[in-house]
From TrEMBL, chains A, B:
The keyword Methyltransferase does not apply. It comes from the Bacteria. This is Aspartokinase. Keywords: Amino-acid biosynthesis, ATP-binding, Diaminopimelate biosynthesis, Kinase, Lysine biosynthesis, Nucleotide-binding, Transferase. GO terms for cellular component: cytosol. Substrate binds at residues 47, 74. The lineage of its organism: Bacteria, Bacillati, Actinomycetota, Actinomycetes, Micrococcales. It catalyses: L-aspartate + ATP = 4-phospho-L-aspartate + ADP. One of its GO terms (biological process) is threonine biosynthetic process. Transmembrane segments: none annotated. InterPro entries: AceGlu_kinase-like_sf, ACT-like_dom_sf, ACT_Aspartokinase, ACT_dom, AKii-LysC-BS, Asp/Glu/Uridylate_kinase, Asp_kin_monofn, Asp_kinase. It holds the Pfam family ACT_9.
């Protein structure tokens, strides 16, 4: 009997009705003859509400206690889900992160999974029960304390379970039909992709595609887990995210998709002395803040001044701490000033085909030029090209490029009312 | 350094503000040079809200999952309380029932404590931290599952911890100043008792005094734990509930207090054949339903008929199941009919002094007679006399008796707005 791991996000279990609907769906899979393990998130906005409550008590909640607090969210949804399934006449057992053997390090709020020992989950399956596991949470063997994996952690929980239990597939249920060649809310003729490689998915996620949490995709790639991103509102097949080896390269298009991202900002370090190792010094400081840098561009140094500018993009949420860290080191580095710009948009085209096909960047730049869209930064990886534009023209840019690469579908994509995960 | 266990109920931690107030109170105790262990209930009506949520999902929630669900309530309040204390610059660590070593049997929803091994609580104290323990919950060694102790369980958690940790005292914080000679809401001149024996407290609780959960008092008596019932809204000393031995008998009054209870109903089994062992048969049937019987009265048999009536009181909530059970056995027992009366009030006078002083019942009956209050049932124990009256005259009866036994204070008791625990 094949084992399937299913992950349901907060919007899929927002209230009693949704929980019953999800329970029905799980039971269908069980009836189809599969062993089923479910990873579930907290109901709707529970996590945010708990955070607000903590902030009412103290502006700096203790990390250990914060994890103790937040992990109650998934325990509520998993218990309700197990009740719902049992009320439909099927065995179900819920397990907390520690009960499910999600062993992590002790970094509260951003714990890393170090081991998965789902002994009790196995027992439940052997007893013919459906196992419901609390997403997002784990347990530190060293500190004996409860930990959380950080935002989007439930996706990671599901993939880690799928890997440890050798599941046939890990189904990630969301409120769209799957992974699209572009955001259907932006590009009307966005095309649902039947299959992408984990590598491409990783670039798409990094490029701003919200559908999957990047950490979960990384985990899936490292452990060869096949993901199936599909809608919890329909029974249509979604998008298979498969290890590169398994992907049928015959069908591989040059470009898989186009992604737009408005969550980044740009910092420019102006007038950096153009001496060896300066960039290293700057990004060492940035790295210490824990900020995630995406694109980096260094202008050609102006011989006259012997100084250069270094620009990089990072999540807006990391802006303040990085600016503060750099200002503190201004004397030692000796740059002239800092510029912060949070009105940028990042457009990325992703596709395994790029490796082998020349001229993708040329085609991209041409499309943007014809649309009169200015590029402020460019960076390329083996299967991704990203450019920075003004924020207000990003959606138009995504449209144009999607069409230019012949990705438009024949008919328009269905967009659900769902609030996303 | 002496160890104090403090218990705070749901109304004391109903919102962020109350939690900060309680945290301040705990820190004061710590600053006074004590080790402090806190048992805390779920915030306000959280438990009821979680129950409602479960009932929305299914009319018969699975007991194991129900416990998984309900135990999140105390985890939220304890985490918030620990955060609040840490934000005041004191070390605090919260522990779930299992982390605190609350080992119970596997009876979900009504688990019994079988062992208390508070190893991590000890470690926290040795590290100079304040330990916050989730009330109401435990962990079954056999099933490895999370359990709950049933309603009022947080009082029991506190007493069990005090016993296991050899605490100097177990402080039960509530919204009244302590244990009164009668309900201050009924008797204006009710007197706050400085000290009562656990035995008397047990009778008072059984007689309807809401201030302490009867199970916790039983536990305190069996394990010689001294309780201090006091208000979380004032710093006045409350009522010490001490093992009989320790109670200063010099001060022992004949009557400790008067309690009224409107939660009971009366069942009369009419026309029972007056043959040996009939009562035994009837109460075996009743016992099988798990109902708690309080008073039992058997009328003198009428020689003419050879039949007798047997009346007993029980919680209204148990009425239906007992009536059903008895009707089912009517043929075998051969009684004529059943009468159910839920309009009764139960008045009890409690006092260790009764043992040695004659005429307490006489004085009680006289007081009621002079007030024109009719008694329908009478039962006496070594330190308690209870009588059943009509429900609508109970409060008046309590007033009258309180005065008759000279319990009235010189001034009126302060009644807080608090909603009780």
């Amino acid at each position: 009997m094949s084992l399937i791991v299913q992950k349901f996000g907060g919007s899929s279990v927002a209230d009693a009705e949704s929980i019953k609907r999800v329970a029905k769906r799980i039971v269908e899979t069980r009836k189809a003859g599969h062993d089923v393990v479910v990873a579930v998130s907290a109901m709707g906005d529970t996590t945010d509400e708990l955070i607000d409550l903590a902030l009412e008590v103290t502006p700096q909640p203790d990390p250990r206690e914060m994890d103790m607090l937040l992990t109650t969210g998934e325990r509520i949804s998993m218990a309700l889900l197990a009740m719902a399934i049992k009320s439909m006449g099927h065995e179900a057992r819920s397990f907390t992160g520690s009960q499910a053997g999600m062993i992590t390090d002790a970094r509260h709020g951003a714990a890393r999974i170090v081991d998965v020992t789902p002994v009790r989950v196995r027992e439940a399956l052997d007893d013919g029960a459906i196992a419901i596991v609390a997403g997002f949470q784990g347990f530190s063997r060293d500190s004996k304390d409860i930990t959380t994996l950080g935002r989007g952690g439930s996706d990671t929980t599901a993939v880690a379970l799928a890997s440890a239990l050798k599941a046939e597939v890990c189904e990630i249920y969301t409120d769209v039909d799957g992974v699209f060649s572009a955001d259907p809310r932006v590009v009307k003729r966005a095309r649902k992709l039947d299959q992408v490689s984990t590598e491409e998915m990783l670039e798409l996620a990094a490029a701003g595609a919200k559908v999957l949490h990047i950490r979960a995709v990384e985990f899936a790639r490292r452990h060869n887990v096949t993901l199936h991103v599909r809608s919890s509102f329909s029974h249509l097949p979604g998008t298979l995210v498969v290890p590169p080896s398994e992907k049928d390269t015959m069908e591989e298009p040059i470009i898989t998709g186009v992604a737009g991202d408005l969550t980044d900002a740009k910092i420019t370090v102006v007038g950096v002395p153009d001496t060896p190792g300066m960039a290293a010094d700057i990004f060492t400081i940035v790295a210490k803040t824990g900020a995630n840098i995406d694109m980096i561009v260094q202008n050609v140094s102006l011989a006259a001044t012997g100084r250069t500018d270094i620009s990089f993009t990072l999540p807006k949420s990391d802006g303040d701490k990085v600016l503060t860290a750099l200002r503190a080191e201004q004397p030692t580095i000796g740059f002239q000033s800092l510029q912060y710009d949070d009105q940028i948009g990042k457009l990325s085209v992703v596709g395994g085909g790029m490796r082998t096909s020349a001229g993708v960047s040329a085609a991209l730049f041409t499309a943007l030029k014809e649309a009169g869209i200015n590029m402020e930064m460019i960076s390329t990886s083996e299967i991704r090209i990203s450019v920075v534009t003004r924020a207000d023209v990003l959606n138009h840019a995504v449209q144009v490029v999607h069409t230019a690469f012949g990705l438009d579908a024949d008919d328009e994509a269905v967009v659900y009312a769902g609030t996303g995960r």
